[in-house]
Amino acid sequence: MILIKTPEEIESMRLSCRLAAQTLRMIAPHVQPGVTTDQLNTLCHQFILDHGATPSPLNYRPTPRNPQGFPKSICTSVNHQVCHGIPSQRILREGDIINVDVTVYLNGFHGDTSRTFFVGPPTSRNKKLVQVAEECLSVGIAAAQPGGYFGDIGAAIEQHARQQHCSVVREYCGHGIGRSFHEEPAVLHYGTRERGAKLLPGMIFTIEPMINQGRAEVKLMPDQWTVVTKDHSLSAQFEHTVLITPEGNEILTVS
Ligand code: MF3
Ligand code: CO
Ligand code: CO
To answer: Are 154 and 191 in contact (CB under 8 A)?
Structure first.
Protein backbone atom coordinates (compact mmCIF):
# COMPACT_ATOMS: atom_id res chain seq x y z
CA MET A 1 0.00 0.00 0.00
CA ILE A 2 1.36 3.44 -0.94
CA LEU A 3 0.50 5.90 1.81
CA ILE A 4 -0.97 9.32 1.04
CA LYS A 5 0.44 11.75 3.59
CA THR A 6 -1.87 14.17 5.44
CA PRO A 7 -1.09 17.91 5.47
CA GLU A 8 0.28 17.51 9.03
CA GLU A 9 2.53 14.63 7.98
CA ILE A 10 3.72 16.67 5.01
CA GLU A 11 4.68 19.53 7.34
CA SER A 12 6.73 17.12 9.48
CA MET A 13 8.37 15.67 6.37
CA ARG A 14 9.37 19.18 5.29
CA LEU A 15 11.30 19.54 8.54
CA SER A 16 13.08 16.17 8.44
CA CYS A 17 13.92 16.62 4.75
CA ARG A 18 15.19 20.16 5.29
CA LEU A 19 17.51 18.92 8.05
CA ALA A 20 18.85 16.16 5.79
CA ALA A 21 19.57 18.76 3.10
CA GLN A 22 21.22 21.09 5.63
CA THR A 23 23.45 18.23 6.76
CA LEU A 24 24.65 17.68 3.18
CA ARG A 25 25.28 21.39 2.78
CA MET A 26 27.22 21.44 6.05
CA ILE A 27 29.46 18.55 4.99
CA ALA A 28 30.24 19.86 1.47
CA PRO A 29 33.26 22.05 2.37
CA HIS A 30 34.74 19.19 4.44
CA VAL A 31 35.00 16.85 1.46
CA GLN A 32 38.70 17.48 0.76
CA PRO A 33 41.84 15.48 0.05
CA GLY A 34 43.32 14.09 3.28
CA VAL A 35 39.99 13.75 5.10
CA THR A 36 38.79 10.28 6.11
CA THR A 37 35.25 9.12 5.43
CA ASP A 38 34.91 8.48 9.15
CA GLN A 39 35.63 12.16 9.85
CA LEU A 40 32.73 13.04 7.53
CA ASN A 41 30.59 10.53 9.44
CA THR A 42 31.47 12.09 12.81
CA LEU A 43 30.68 15.61 11.61
CA CYS A 44 27.29 14.57 10.19
CA HIS A 45 26.44 12.46 13.25
CA GLN A 46 27.08 15.39 15.60
CA PHE A 47 25.24 17.90 13.38
CA ILE A 48 22.17 15.66 13.22
CA LEU A 49 22.10 15.14 17.03
CA ASP A 50 22.65 18.88 17.59
CA HIS A 51 19.45 19.50 15.59
CA GLY A 52 17.31 17.18 17.69
CA ALA A 53 17.30 14.27 15.25
CA THR A 54 18.97 10.87 14.94
CA PRO A 55 20.79 9.39 11.93
CA SER A 56 18.51 6.76 10.35
CA PRO A 57 21.28 4.48 8.99
CA LEU A 58 22.89 3.88 12.40
CA ASN A 59 22.05 0.29 13.41
CA TYR A 60 19.63 0.05 10.49
CA ARG A 61 18.44 -3.47 9.61
CA PRO A 62 20.10 -5.80 12.11
CA THR A 63 20.28 -9.44 10.99
CA PRO A 64 21.29 -12.59 12.87
CA ARG A 65 24.60 -12.47 11.00
CA ASN A 66 25.08 -8.74 11.68
CA PRO A 67 23.18 -7.90 14.89
CA GLN A 68 24.54 -4.32 14.87
CA GLY A 69 22.97 -3.46 11.54
CA PHE A 70 24.62 -0.64 9.57
CA PRO A 71 27.48 0.51 11.82
CA LYS A 72 27.65 4.23 10.92
CA SER A 73 25.44 7.32 10.60
CA ILE A 74 25.87 8.12 6.90
CA CYS A 75 26.83 6.18 3.79
CA THR A 76 30.03 7.18 1.97
CA SER A 77 30.54 5.50 -1.41
CA VAL A 78 33.84 6.25 -3.17
CA ASN A 79 34.61 5.80 -6.90
CA HIS A 80 33.42 2.32 -7.99
CA GLN A 81 31.39 1.92 -4.79
CA VAL A 82 27.76 2.25 -5.85
CA CYS A 83 26.00 2.74 -2.50
CA HIS A 84 25.94 1.82 1.21
CA GLY A 85 29.69 2.39 1.64
CA ILE A 86 30.70 2.31 5.32
CA PRO A 87 32.67 5.29 6.66
CA SER A 88 36.18 4.17 7.62
CA GLN A 89 39.79 5.32 8.04
CA ARG A 90 40.02 5.56 4.25
CA ILE A 91 41.67 8.85 3.29
CA LEU A 92 40.12 10.75 0.39
CA ARG A 93 42.52 11.60 -2.42
CA GLU A 94 42.43 14.19 -5.17
CA GLY A 95 40.55 12.76 -8.15
CA ASP A 96 38.17 10.64 -6.05
CA ILE A 97 34.41 11.04 -6.24
CA ILE A 98 32.31 10.32 -3.17
CA ASN A 99 28.58 10.01 -2.63
CA VAL A 100 27.49 11.13 0.82
CA ASP A 101 24.02 9.80 1.66
CA VAL A 102 22.28 11.41 4.65
CA THR A 103 19.05 10.21 6.22
CA VAL A 104 17.73 11.81 9.41
CA TYR A 105 14.87 10.86 11.71
CA LEU A 106 13.21 13.96 13.18
CA ASN A 107 9.98 14.01 15.21
CA GLY A 108 8.91 10.63 13.85
CA PHE A 109 9.70 11.20 10.18
CA HIS A 110 12.66 10.38 7.93
CA GLY A 111 14.26 12.63 5.29
CA ASP A 112 16.72 11.17 2.78
CA THR A 113 19.10 12.87 0.34
CA SER A 114 22.51 12.30 -1.19
CA ARG A 115 24.93 13.85 -3.61
CA THR A 116 28.23 13.01 -5.24
CA PHE A 117 31.16 15.33 -4.53
CA PHE A 118 34.52 15.73 -6.26
CA VAL A 119 37.58 15.45 -4.08
CA GLY A 120 39.83 18.24 -5.33
CA PRO A 121 39.59 19.36 -8.96
CA PRO A 122 37.50 16.92 -11.05
CA THR A 123 38.95 14.96 -13.94
CA SER A 124 36.95 15.22 -17.17
CA ARG A 125 35.84 11.57 -16.82
CA ASN A 126 34.55 12.21 -13.30
CA LYS A 127 32.84 15.40 -14.38
CA LYS A 128 31.00 13.65 -17.19
CA LEU A 129 29.63 10.82 -15.05
CA VAL A 130 28.64 13.03 -12.12
CA GLN A 131 26.87 15.42 -14.47
CA VAL A 132 24.93 12.58 -16.10
CA ALA A 133 23.95 11.21 -12.68
CA GLU A 134 22.64 14.60 -11.57
CA GLU A 135 20.74 15.00 -14.84
CA CYS A 136 19.22 11.55 -14.37
CA LEU A 137 17.79 12.65 -11.03
CA SER A 138 16.46 15.86 -12.64
CA VAL A 139 14.71 14.11 -15.51
CA GLY A 140 13.28 11.58 -13.04
CA ILE A 141 11.85 14.34 -10.88
CA ALA A 142 10.47 16.16 -13.93
CA ALA A 143 8.66 12.95 -14.93
CA ALA A 144 7.02 12.61 -11.49
CA GLN A 145 3.66 14.26 -12.14
CA PRO A 146 0.23 13.75 -10.56
CA GLY A 147 -1.90 11.49 -12.74
CA GLY A 148 1.23 9.95 -14.25
CA TYR A 149 2.84 6.64 -13.32
CA PHE A 150 5.91 5.45 -11.47
CA GLY A 151 7.03 3.89 -14.75
CA ASP A 152 7.33 7.40 -16.23
CA ILE A 153 10.11 8.16 -13.74
CA GLY A 154 12.14 5.05 -14.51
CA ALA A 155 11.68 5.41 -18.26
CA ALA A 156 12.91 9.01 -18.23
CA ILE A 157 16.00 8.12 -16.19
CA GLU A 158 16.87 5.06 -18.27
CA GLN A 159 16.48 6.96 -21.52
CA HIS A 160 18.77 9.77 -20.41
CA ALA A 161 21.45 7.43 -19.05
CA ARG A 162 21.49 5.39 -22.27
CA GLN A 163 21.66 8.49 -24.40
CA GLN A 164 24.76 9.50 -22.46
CA HIS A 165 26.31 6.01 -22.76
CA CYS A 166 25.97 5.27 -19.07
CA SER A 167 24.11 2.44 -17.34
CA VAL A 168 21.51 2.31 -14.56
CA VAL A 169 21.89 0.01 -11.55
CA ARG A 170 18.84 -2.24 -11.32
CA GLU A 171 19.26 -3.97 -7.96
CA TYR A 172 18.70 -0.87 -5.81
CA CYS A 173 15.94 1.66 -6.12
CA GLY A 174 14.19 4.66 -4.61
CA HIS A 175 11.46 4.14 -2.04
CA GLY A 176 8.46 5.58 -0.29
CA ILE A 177 9.49 7.36 2.91
CA GLY A 178 7.76 8.82 5.94
CA ARG A 179 7.30 7.29 9.39
CA SER A 180 9.42 4.43 8.01
CA PHE A 181 12.81 4.78 6.29
CA HIS A 182 11.81 2.48 3.44
CA GLU A 183 8.10 2.26 2.55
CA GLU A 184 6.25 1.13 -0.51
CA PRO A 185 6.65 1.48 -3.38
CA ALA A 186 10.06 0.54 -4.76
CA VAL A 187 10.85 3.38 -7.18
CA LEU A 188 12.65 1.77 -10.10
CA HIS A 189 15.14 3.83 -12.08
CA TYR A 190 14.30 2.00 -15.29
CA GLY A 191 11.05 0.90 -16.86
CA THR A 192 8.23 1.73 -19.20
CA ARG A 193 6.01 4.79 -19.37
CA GLU A 194 2.45 4.42 -18.05
CA ARG A 195 3.36 1.26 -16.11
CA GLY A 196 3.33 0.79 -12.38
CA ALA A 197 1.28 2.57 -9.74
CA LYS A 198 -0.37 5.92 -10.42
CA LEU A 199 1.29 9.04 -8.96
CA LEU A 200 -1.10 10.84 -6.62
CA PRO A 201 -0.88 14.07 -4.60
CA GLY A 202 0.39 13.37 -1.09
CA MET A 203 2.74 10.56 -2.07
CA ILE A 204 6.31 11.06 -0.83
CA PHE A 205 9.21 8.98 -2.11
CA THR A 206 12.86 9.19 -3.03
CA ILE A 207 14.38 9.12 -6.48
CA GLU A 208 18.04 8.10 -6.31
CA PRO A 209 19.43 6.67 -9.53
CA MET A 210 22.87 5.02 -9.35
CA ILE A 211 24.61 5.60 -12.69
CA ASN A 212 27.66 3.66 -13.85
CA GLN A 213 30.25 4.65 -16.43
CA GLY A 214 30.57 1.00 -17.46
CA ARG A 215 28.23 -1.95 -17.12
CA ALA A 216 25.18 -1.95 -14.86
CA GLU A 217 26.05 -5.09 -12.87
CA VAL A 218 26.96 -4.76 -9.21
CA LYS A 219 28.16 -7.05 -6.44
CA LEU A 220 28.01 -6.98 -2.66
CA MET A 221 31.30 -6.84 -0.73
CA PRO A 222 32.05 -9.27 2.12
CA ASP A 223 31.12 -6.55 4.67
CA GLN A 224 27.55 -7.29 3.48
CA TRP A 225 26.81 -3.57 2.92
CA THR A 226 29.11 -1.97 0.37
CA VAL A 227 27.84 -2.36 -3.20
CA VAL A 228 30.43 -1.99 -6.00
CA THR A 229 30.36 -2.19 -9.78
CA LYS A 230 31.34 -5.63 -11.05
CA ASP A 231 33.60 -4.16 -13.73
CA HIS A 232 35.11 -1.61 -11.28
CA SER A 233 33.79 1.26 -13.39
CA LEU A 234 32.98 4.57 -11.70
CA SER A 235 29.50 5.06 -10.20
CA ALA A 236 27.68 8.23 -9.13
CA GLN A 237 24.36 8.98 -7.43
CA PHE A 238 22.13 11.89 -6.43
CA GLU A 239 19.01 11.54 -4.29
CA HIS A 240 16.06 13.72 -3.35
CA THR A 241 12.89 13.13 -1.36
CA VAL A 242 9.98 14.31 -3.49
CA LEU A 243 6.30 15.12 -2.73
CA ILE A 244 3.65 14.79 -5.43
CA THR A 245 1.42 17.89 -5.29
CA PRO A 246 -1.85 18.63 -7.14
CA GLU A 247 0.14 20.87 -9.51
CA GLY A 248 3.28 18.80 -9.99
CA ASN A 249 5.89 17.99 -7.39
CA GLU A 250 7.98 19.55 -4.69
CA ILE A 251 11.55 18.58 -3.79
CA LEU A 252 11.51 18.39 0.00
CA THR A 253 15.28 17.98 0.41
CA VAL A 254 16.30 21.42 -0.87
CA SER A 255 18.22 23.46 1.69
N1 MF3 B 1 20.07 6.19 2.52
C2 MF3 B 1 20.01 4.99 1.75
C3 MF3 B 1 18.84 5.12 0.81
O4 MF3 B 1 18.85 6.05 0.07
C5 MF3 B 1 19.87 3.77 2.58
C6 MF3 B 1 21.00 3.52 3.47
S7 MF3 B 1 20.65 2.15 4.40
C8 MF3 B 1 22.07 1.88 5.22
O9 MF3 B 1 17.87 4.43 0.83
F10 MF3 B 1 21.82 1.04 6.13
F11 MF3 B 1 22.99 1.47 4.37
F12 MF3 B 1 22.47 3.01 5.75
CO1 CO C 1 19.68 7.85 0.90
CO1 CO D 1 16.85 6.55 -0.15
So the answer is: yes
